[in-house]
Design brief:
By secondary structure, the chain is α+β, with helices and mostly antiparallel strands. The chain is built from nine helices and eleven strands.
C-alpha cells in the first residue's frame, strides 16, 4: 500500500454518505484486497461485503449507504490485536480508493450482522464498517458525535511515547527514524477516541503498551482497546515499511516497570 502517511493524515471516520453505490471497479479492488489481508499474529481475519438492501441490517449512526463490510475471526489468543491490524489495513486501502469508513463496534443491530456473517460459535465479529463515498456535508448527528468525543483531538507525542522508561518523555527528535511511524500511531482512530496506546523506545526496540480504561470489554466484541492496539501496530508497521525500515515483530515483555493498569502488548525491533 502506497502513501500510508498521507492516508492516515487525510482519513476521518465517515458516517454520512452521498447515497451513490460503489463503482464496480472499486468493489472488485476491495474484494481482491480483502482476500489477501494479513497481520503479524498470523490469525486469519475473514471479511465479507454485506448489503442492507438484501439483508435486514441496521446501523442508526450511519446514513446514505446500504453497503457494509463485516469481519470475523476465531476466538484465539490475540484475536483483538490481529483483528485491529487486519481491518485497519482494509480501512486504509478503502481510503486510498476514496471510500469512507468508520469503525462500528456497538451502535448496530449486532445479531443481524452476526447472522449475515454466518458467525460460528467459536468465532467473533468485534466490529464492522459501512462503505460508501463521503457526503459533501456531515449530518447534524455525525457532527455532534464527533464533537462529543473530540474526534479531531490527539494526545501530545511526549505524553504517550517514552525514552527508555515510563515517565521519561520521548521527543520526535530523539525518536529519529521512528518518529514518523510513532506519529502515525498518535493519529490512529480508537474507540470513543480514548487513544489507549503507549510506547517505550529502548535499545533499538519499540515496546507497545495498552493503558486500560474500564468499560471496553464484552463477550460479543472482545476487548475494544486491544483492537485499538492492533490499529496502532498497523499504522506503525506500515509506515516503517514505507520508510524502508526493516523491523521484526515479537511478543517478549521487556519487563519495564509500568502502572498496574498498563499491559504490555508487543514489540518491534530494529536490526
Amino acid at each position: 500500500m502506497k502513501h500510508v502517511t498521507a492516508l492516515v493524515q487525510g482519513r476521518r471516520s465517515v458516517r454520512t454518505f452521498d447515497g451513490e453505490r460503489l463503482r464496480e471497479e472499486d468493489l472488485e479492488k476491495l474484494s481482491s484486497f480483502m482476500a489477501e489481508l494479513n497481520n503479524p499474529y498470523e490469525i486469519p481475519v475473514k471479511c465479507r461485503l454485506l448489503d442492507a438492501s438484501q439483508q435486514p441490517l441496521k446501523c442508526p449512526v450511519v446514513s446514505g449507504t446500504e453497503l457494509y463490510v463485516g469481519a470475523k475471526a476465531k476466538r484465539v489468543p490475540h484475536i483483538e490485536e490481529a483483528f485491529g491490524y487486519s481491518f485497519e489495513t482494509l480501512v486504509l486501502y478503502a481510503q486510498s480508493l476514496g471510500i469512507g469508513t468508520v469503525w462500528v463496534g456497538g451502535t448496530m443491530d449486532r445479531a443481524a450482522f452476526e447472522r449475515a456473517m454466518e458467525l460460528e460459535s467459536e468465532e467473533m465479529m468485534p466490529c464492522m464498517s459501512p462503505l460508501g463515498y463521503p457526503a459533501k456535508k456531515m449530518s447534524v448527528k455525525e457532527s455532534l458525535m464527533r464533537k462529543g468525543i473530540r474526534a479531531d483531538h490527539r494526545k501530545p507525542f511526549e505524553e504517550i511515547f517514552f525514552d527508555g522508561a515510563f515517565g521519561v518523555p520521548l521527543t520526535p527528535e530523539k525518536a529519529g527514524v521512528l518518529a514518523q511511524p510513532l506519529e502515525m500511531v498518535r493519529l490512529a482512530p480508537s474507540a470513543v477516541n480514548k487513544q489507549p496506546w503507549q510506547a517505550v523506545l529502548k535499545e533499538n526496540a519499540v515496546h507497545f503498551y495498552l493503558k486500560h480504561t474500564k468499560g471496553f470489554v464484552s463477550e460479543a466484541a472482545g476487548d475494544l482497546q486491544k483492537i485499538d492496539m492492533g490499529i496502532a501496530l498497523c499504522h506503525f508497521a506500515l509506515t516503517a515499511e514505507e520508510n524502508g525500515l526493516t523491523m521484526q515483530f515479537c511478543i517478549n515483555d521487556p519487563g519495564i516497570p509500568a502502572e498496574p493498569d498498563t499491559e504490555y502488548i508487543a514489540s518491534y525491533l530494529l536490526p
